[in-house]
Design the sequence.
């Protein structure tokens, strides 16, 4: 079973999905601290800044909802504090600036905190009204005093429009455009006045969030609102960004991190993500940064919707069939023989799976361990059921009296002969400690002219990482036949997060839900091993992409 999913390297790096992705990702990064204080600090590390906007979000981000424009106007970053103490991550950033704004009254951030910052020689200004609406007004007035004129303002619902507000916050930061908060039903006179004084006015959210009454009171306003937060999110991106390919993704309910991310999202829009919904704004994404504490299955859905992570080349998956053990020949399977390669290449196979192990004297040979009964049937001495032959002994053997044995080097010679041949490697030894040894040998014996057509099979997360330590292979399969059980969500997350786009199962693990998870996360599902065309046709109709086979014809 997968051992340490969270060891995934993101930089190198479910439910039904109705929209087919048309792009693919080049890169997935992550910004995440041990808590929100540290995450905010890590976000600040991504840009130069000359002021700090201090917010207490321990209970609510209400005060911070309108902070983005002020941060933009002062070239600042939004950082977090508790009421009575400043976390070390935040203090280190405050130490770098001379100007600090405190958002909220002394019930949110205490006077002792304010005095402490002043005593450190900082210029401190507090903006905090009797409620979130008044605070948004004070912030807007401060931005206006800094910029001289408000080019844009956004009017939003401060009670139930948080998702719309955080979608807007990067534009608010970039354009120094205040977000003015209402209760969604009416608008205070002072907020209306400052809104009407700006050049452009945008109402964020549909009429269920910000009523038509509010819209009527705002002069010449433009409403931006979709049928839900995800559509509104996309509409904001479409309106204020020019064909972006890079995005910051934030969990749809993590308003705190979304607001703080405004300072790094002026060119890379914030996209709200939820594993239950298609991330429609990511259809053309090429690079994604996951910010904050986002669940792996949510990130992997975002990756899948974007076409998957372009870590590997999967051109070979245009082939539905993989020749199992180099394919059957003369009605016989498991020969791993040169005759099997020739026969099946001529049948139309281009992707071949080969069983590999070390000979007794350390050479890499094509060999499928078998029982005494199977060896007897194949005409091979029974002693090799419990011990491996030396390479010289191996080369003297013939399966069924006529099919030659083959070393890995000899298999590689066929790849040089057939330039469109791919080789899927199946390591038959059970000792995981030998995986790196095996793949170092594969790299050594393959050569640069064929190594890019070698497709390793990983059996666990740690064998995957061991394989990739030996060589940056151009393709990869995750196969499950050595596992006793699987967690569908865990295993598809691992594949998506590492750019593995082929998952192989057998009948034990097939479920419609696994097919849907693979589809959602940009993974093709293959199955092994089938020789009945009716069974293959049935699974194909159920969404399986490919099959290992001994005898079927491509």
Sequence:
């Amino acid at each position: 079973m997968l051992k340490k999913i969270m060891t995934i390297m993101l930089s190198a790096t479910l439910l039904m999905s109705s929209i087919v992705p048309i792009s693919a990702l080049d890169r997935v990064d992550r910004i995440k601290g041990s808590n929100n204080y540290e995450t905010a600090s890590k976000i600040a590390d991504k840009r130069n800044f000359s002021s700090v906007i201090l917010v207490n979000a321990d209970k609510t981000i209400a005060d911070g909802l309108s902070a983005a424009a002020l941060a933009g106007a002062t070239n600042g970053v939004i950082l977090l504090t508790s009421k009575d103490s400043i976390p070390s991550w935040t203090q280190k950033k405050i130490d770098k600036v001379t100007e600090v704004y405190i958002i909220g009254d002394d019930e949110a951030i205490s006077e002792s905190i304010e005095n402490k910052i002043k005593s450190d020689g900082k210029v401190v200004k507090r903006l905090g009204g009797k409620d979130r609406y008044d605070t948004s007004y004070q912030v807007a007035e401060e931005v206006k005093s800094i910029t001289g004129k408000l080019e844009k303002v956004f009017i939003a619902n401060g009670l139930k429009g948080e998702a719309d507000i955080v979608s807007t916050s990067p534009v608010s930061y970039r354009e120094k455009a205040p977000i003015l908060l209402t209760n969604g039903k009416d608008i205070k006179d002072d907020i209306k006045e400052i809104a009407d004084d700006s050049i452009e006015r945008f109402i964020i959210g549909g009429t269920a969030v910000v009523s038509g009454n509010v819209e009527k009171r705002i002069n010449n306003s433009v409403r931006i609102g979709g049928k839900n937060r995800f559509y509104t999110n996309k509409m904001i991106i479409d309106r204020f960004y020019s064909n972006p390919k890079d995005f910051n993704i934030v969990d749809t309910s993590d308003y705190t991190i979304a607001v703080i991310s405004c300072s790094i999202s002026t060119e890379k829009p914030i996209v709200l993500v939820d594993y239950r919904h298609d991330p429609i704004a990511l259809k053309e994404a090429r690079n994604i940064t996951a910010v904050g504490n986002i669940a792996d299955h949510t990130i992997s859905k975002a990756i899948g919707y974007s076409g998957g992570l372009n870590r590997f080349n999967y051109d070979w998956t245009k082939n539905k069939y993989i020749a199992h053990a180099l394919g059957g020949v003369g009605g016989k399977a498991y020969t791993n023989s040169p005759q099997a390669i020739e026969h099946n290449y001529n049948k139309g196979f281009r992707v071949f799976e080969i069983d590999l192990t070390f000979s007794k004297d350390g050479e890499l040979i094509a060999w499928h361990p078998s029982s005494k009964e199977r060896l007897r049937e194949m005409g091979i001495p029974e002693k090799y059921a419990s011990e491996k032959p030396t390479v010289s002994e191996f080369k003297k053997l013939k399966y069924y009296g006529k099919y030659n044995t083959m070393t890995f080097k000899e298999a590689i010679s066929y790849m040089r002969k057939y330039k469109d041949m791919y080789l899927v490697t199946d390591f038959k030894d059970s000792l995981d400690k030998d995986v790196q040894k095996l793949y170092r040998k594969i790299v050594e014996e393959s050569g640069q002219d064929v190594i890019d057509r070698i497709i390793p099979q990983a059996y666990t997360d740690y064998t995957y990482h061991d394989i990739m330590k030996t060589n940056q292979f151009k393709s990869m399969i995750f196969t499950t036949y050595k596992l006793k059980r699987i967690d569908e969500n865990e295993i598809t997350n691992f594949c998506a997060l590492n750019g593995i786009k082929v998952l192989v199962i057998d009948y034990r693990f097939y479920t419609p839900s696994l097919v849907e998870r693979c589809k959602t996360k940009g993974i093709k599902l293959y199955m092994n091993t089938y020789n009945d065309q009716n069974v293959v046709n049935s699974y194909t109709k159920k969404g399986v992409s490919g099959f290992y086979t001994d005898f079927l014809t491509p």
Q: What stands out?
A: The chain is about 35% helix and 20% strand. The mean pLDDT is 92. Residues 13-32+243-257+264-310 form one domain.
